[in-house]
Design brief:
Elements: H1 2-38, H2 40-47, H3 51-73, H4 76-89, H5 93-120, H6 132-158, H7 163-190, H8 195-223, H9 225-233, H10 243-261, H11 263-282, H12 287-329, H13 332-359, H14 361-369, H15 374-403, H16 407-432, H17 436-460, H18 464-492, H19 500-524, H20 527-532, H21 537-542
């Protein structure tokens, strides 16, 4: 009986840790993503007629950069978080510190190597767009800094300390956006300069932002240095792990993180390099027109849905160390409970967010991107919003597999989904145009997610009946949220305005009305309590909901 009580307590503690960690990471991610989207409005205005071309160039450069960045980081931050949590669970904090130092060495070496490759090899990755060379040169500088910053975030996460990561992430984005807007205004409005130069400075902002984020992490580490030293001093110090073995552990854990972490980016790169050739086969289109279409589905919509996907990413980062601890202890029932919690927390935030964005796609697109291709852009954004549920699910389930050391299997399942994406890409793009890549991405990730979830169920027994019961409540409430948001957008459309101010007001009213409805229902029905734990009762009292 005592053992059962202790087990229940452990599961409750794990749930509390997951909720608290997710709260920090979600806040950091969502504020960062909002900043990363809001800058579009003035950026768009200042670029004027060059906006769509500039945004397409920016998006193409960032897709390539993202892939190189993942290779440079080499999955080390997530691997460090996982392995640090593993050794911490064994009370071997000294090994965790050594692991961090060895990982830092790897991150610095790979960062320098990949930055040099990206800088000097830039002409090889442009796909025929000469403007991309200067953009890739400016982005290479960020790769020198970000691996060290990301690795340190992983170290904090391994100790279940999510605040430093979340705050540094926000500061990084704040500094980056500030630099982007200042340089864009000066180059395009004050100096009447070249739009390619402005885009290059906007991408160089990634390096400036990384310096800001790294500085915040350094301050946190300095303030908590005595805490880390005390943990090391009170470690068991029973395990002896040679330096070579630490290197091997980091690399063995990191390589799968490269593939899985780059999953969405890899799919975007497939779209970037195949969309125009397939469309040229389908009809007579100019390169400028195809660039505009790519900007609509591959850049514009993507930036907005990444706000909601960041919720799933924040959850994924939180789950990995917790699962790793349970896996180290060999507690299958605890793992099963954590899997259920992870799926429910994902649904709880992702489904209403995605449906809500789809409901207000029209006015939301006008606020951020103006009137260019307004009807088509709104349709693509709505479709992408539904698709974001699958992208977010992939982010979570791939992290779950990594947390239980099923890295190779997760990579195999991703490769299967990638093959499916390649197979269906050509016919779908040929017949459905700008929607084709999105449909192909959805099919590919559906296959990968199914294979991973099936594998988790076979190994640990996912309680689908328990999840389904609460999912029904989440889904019904989310549909109600969608209907309310859609109704507000429909009423607002009678204004006939395509201006940013009016549509911003429509979006805000829809968010407030539909958002309050969702919060009220999940609190009133106690659905939030069953998913997020008893602490949520405090919010219900503050909102005077019985």
């Amino acid at each position: 009986m005592a053992a059962r009580s202790n087990q229940t307590g452990n599961q409750g503690s794990a749930q509390d840790q997951m909720v608290a960690g997710s709260a920090w990471m979600t806040a950091g991610s969502i504020f960062s993503r909002i900043l990363g989207a809001v800058y579009i409005i003035p950026w768009n205005i200042w670029f004027g007629a060059f906006y769509l071309q500039g945004n397409a160039l920016y998006g193409k450069g960032y897709n390539i950069y993202s892939f190189f960045l993942i290779a440079a980081i080499a999955g080390v931050p997530s691997a460090i978080a996982k392995q640090v949590a593993h050794y911490n669970a064994l009370n071997e904090y000294g090994i965790s510190v050594r692991l961090y130092k060895r990982g830092l060495e790897i991150a610095i070496v790979t960062g320098i190597s990949i930055a040099l490759l990206m800088y000097f090899g830039a002409p090889l990755f442009t796909g025929g767009d000469a403007h991309l060379v200067s953009v890739l040169h400016s982005l290479a500088w960020a790769i020198l800094i970000i691996p060290t910053m990301s690795l340190t975030r992983g170290y904090f996460q391994g100790f279940q300390q999510m605040a430093p990561s979340a705050i540094s992430q926000f500061v990084e984005q704040l500094v980056r956006v500030a630099y982007m807007l200042i340089t864009a205004f000066i180059i395009m409005r004050v100096l009447n300069g070249n739009w390619v130069t402005a885009v290059s400075q906007s991408t160089f902002a990634a390096a400036i932002g990384a310096l800001g984020g790294l500085l915040i992490l350094g301050v946190y580490y300095w303030r908590r240095r005595h805490y880390f030293r005390d943990l090391v001093a009170n470690s068991n110090n029973e395990l002896v792990v040679p330096a070579n073995q630490l290197y091997k552990e980091i690399i063995a854990q990191a390589v799968p993180f490269i593939v899985l972490g780059a999953g969405i980016t890899i799919f975007q790169l497939i779209d970037q390099y195949t969309f125009a050739p397939i469309m040229h086969m389908a009809g007579t289109y100019t390169d400028a027109h195809l660039n505009d279409l790519f900007a609509l589905f591959g850049v514009n919509a993507n930036k907005l849905i990444m706000i909601t996907i960041s919720l799933a990413s924040a959850l994924a980062v939180t789950v990995v160390p917790l699962l790793s601890e349970s896996y180290t202890r060999g507690n299958k029932s605890e793992i099963s409970a954590q899997l259920s919690n992870a799926f429910l927390m994902f649904e709880f935030v992702m489904i209403p967010s995605a449906l809500g964005m789809a409901a207000i796609a029209g006015p939301l697109n006008l606020v951020f991107y103006g009137r260019s291709h307004a009807a088509l852009a709104a349709s693509i954004l709505a479709f992408s919003s539904y698709l974001s549920i699958l992208l977010g699910l992939y982010t979570v389930v791939s992290a779950l597999m990594q947390g239980i050391s099923q890295n190779k299997r997760a990579v195999r399942y991703f490769l299967v989904g990638t093959v499916v994406k390649f197979i269906v890409q050509w016919p779908l793009v040929y017949f459905f145009g700008a929607f084709g890549p999105l449909i192909a991405t959805g099919i590919g990730f559906t296959v990968t997610c199914y294979l991973i979830i099936h594998s988790l169920d076979v190994q640990f027994g996912i309680n689908f009946a328990h999840i389904a019961k609460k999912t029904n409540g989440i889904l019904l409430t989310s549909i109600g949220t969608y209907v309310l948001a859609r109704l507000v957008a429909w009423i607002g459309a009678f204004s006939g305005s395509q201006g940013r101010v009016v549509n911003f007001l429509i979006v805000m009213v829809a968010v407030i009305v539909a958002g309050y409805f969702y919060v009220y229902v999940v609190l009133r029905t106690r659905l939030a309590d069953s998913i997020l734990g008893p602490r949520i009762a405090g919010l219900r009292r503050r909102l005077h909901i019985r």
